[in-house]
Design goal:
The chain is of the alpha+beta class and about 500 residues long. Helices cover about 60% and strands about 5% of the residues. It has 25 helices and 4 strands.
């Protein structure tokens, strides 16, 4: 009996040893850093070679007093689980276990940099739960994190900074201020790697995007201010911009990929355009004006002419209200000009008028039929010059037949002619006015595009600013001890005395 019990015990020990060895063999080998896929690794280098080059030690690594984690990873995880307001209690969805083999590349790198595995699993579960029904958005966040982790690995960032960059990339589509679970993740990751929530928020701000240039400039200023406040050096500014580039790399790459887990729609153009716009918007809700702007980028990248039936069908599907309004605005145009509808609309916006007024201006100049036969690009350029000439000549048409009125008509003709002896002179929007004075009394004045004329006493530069003319002193060939402003005021007084309305000046 004792012999049988000993045999059973010996067999159990052998079985336990074998199972443990098998578990150790089956443990994920991905805890060591793994290389990026070739496409993700090559894309940043193609866009900005400096991304792959290690930066200086002062700009890439944590300061000496922050190189070591403030608390151990294990202690941080234990504290988080014991805390009443821990994420596990607040949102059970984030505690779903992630199988070891399901860890994506960025998660493996995080573990390799010393982040506790349960904390990485919480991050993965949060990304999956934060976009219910939108697998593409969750995949996008993980892809951005993978590219950012690859950049950090190749640049040789210290583990704390590498984790900071990768976490910010993974959460770039989330507003931490409105998401308690994201705040908890940022807090726990920061405690394990010695970075602050403010640093994460600053890097996330770097990825904010708007198709409106003014709004985008405001977002850039917000990021720069937050980065300077959160970091003791320029690291946040440098790597925030690189993180923004990583996000764009993934967005552009996703745009060329088929829509996942979805039957192909009837119109492949429409599906591709929607994927492109969604990938760049990164979860931000766009209005029709913003959508139309991104659609224009999509058309350009795919060589689809904006005026083509293919492009117009996309606009009717994606921006129906704008498309309907534009079609109504173009309805009065003659068929020959309607084929240039996109250019006519753009010119109407630029000149703050209507497509019907654009057609009327072209007809006044006797150019409508001739311009209608040009290519789209040539039509836009020549129609712009024609509208400019028409606007200038109508502005001076009512001035009296005096020396002052004649000078203003000569200025308008010179602005519309775009001629000169150099590229600089042709490219100028304004023209030069040459004048001789006796004290501050104007004796004579004429105009041209040559800035180097030395014959006149004073040279002015004249431009058209909205509905007004503007004159500034350019050079005094024979200085008389007076400032340019004195001569400018004297010129404007002479123009007003000659019948040019003072309201048209300045």
């Amino acid at each position: 009996m004792k012999l049988a019990r000993l045999s059973t015990l010996f067999a159990f020990v052998l079985l336990s040893t074998s199972v443990r060895a098998q578990v150790e063999l089956d443990a994920p080998a991905a805890v060591a850093p793994t290389p990026l896929p070739s496409a993700a690794a090559a894309a940043p280098l193609a866009l900005e070679p400096s991304l792959a080059a290690p930066a200086s030690a002062s700009s890439l690594f944590l300061p000496a007093n922050a190189a070591a984690p403030a608390v151990s990873v294990r202690a941080s995880a234990a504290a988080a689980s014991a805390e009443p307001s821990a994420p596990a209690a607040a949102a059970p969805a984030s505690e779903r276990a992630v199988p070891p083999r399901a860890r994506p590349e960025f998660a493996a790198r995080l573990i390799g940099w010393g982040v506790d595995e349960p904390l990485v699993d919480r991050l993965q579960a949060f990304l999956a739960a934060n976009h219910p029904g939108e697998k593409a958005l969750a995949d996008h966040s993980q892809e951005v994190a993978a590219v950012a982790a690859g950049l950090a690995e190749r640049a040789g960032l210290a583990p704390g900074r590498a984790v900071l960059l990768t976490l910010s990339a993974a959460l770039h589509g989330v507003d931490p201020e409105r998401t308690p679970e994201a705040r908890a993740l940022i807090r726990d990751f920061g405690a394990s790697q010695s970075f602050t929530p403010e640093q994460v928020r600053a890097l996330i701000l770097a990825t904010d995007f708007s198709p409106d240039p003014a709004a985008m400039a405001e977002k850039s200023r917000a990021f720069e201010g937050a980065a300077r406040a959160a970091f003791h050096d320029d690291w946040g500014l440098v790597w925030g911009r690189r993180l923004a580039l990583a996000e764009q790399i993934v967005a552009r790459r996703d745009a060329a990929s088929p829509a996942p887990e979805r039957a192909p729609p009837a119109d492949p153009d429409l599906a591709a355009a929607r994927r492109y716009i969604r990938s760049i918007a990164a979860g931000v809700r766009l209005d029709e004006r913003q959508t139309d702007s991104l659609l224009g980028d999509y058309l350009a990248e795919n060589a689809i002419p904006p005026a083509s039936p293919r492009a117009q069908a996309l606009r009717r599907a994606l921006v129906p209200a704008r498309a309907a309004a534009e079609e109504a605005a173009l309805a009065p145009l003659k068929p020959a000009l309607r084929r240039h509808g996109a250019a006519v609309l753009a010119l109407a916006r630029e000149y703050e008028t209507t497509p019907a007024e654009v057609q009327a201006a072209l007809e006044r100049r006797g150019a409508a039929e001739e311009l209608a036969s040009l290519s789209e690009r040539d039509f836009r350029r020549q129609a712009d010059l024609t509208l400019r000439r028409d606007e200038l000549q109508r502005a001076v048409a009512g001035y009296p037949r005096t020396a002052a009125g004649d000078l203003m008509r000569a200025i308008a003709d010179a602005m519309a002619a775009r001629s000169g002896k150099s590229v600089e002179e042709v490219a100028r929007d304004g023209v030069f006015v040459y004048a001789d004075f006796a004290g501050t009394t104007l004796l004579r004045a004429w105009t041209g595009r040559d800035p180097d004329t030395r014959a006149p006493q004073v040279v002015f530069y004249a431009t058209r600013d909205g509905a007004r003319w503007r004159f500034v002193g350019y050079r005094q060939n024979r200085p008389q001890g007076r400032p340019d402003a004195d001569y400018t005021q004297a010129l404007e007084r002479w123009l007003s005395a000659g019948g040019v309305p003072a309201a048209d000046l300045r």
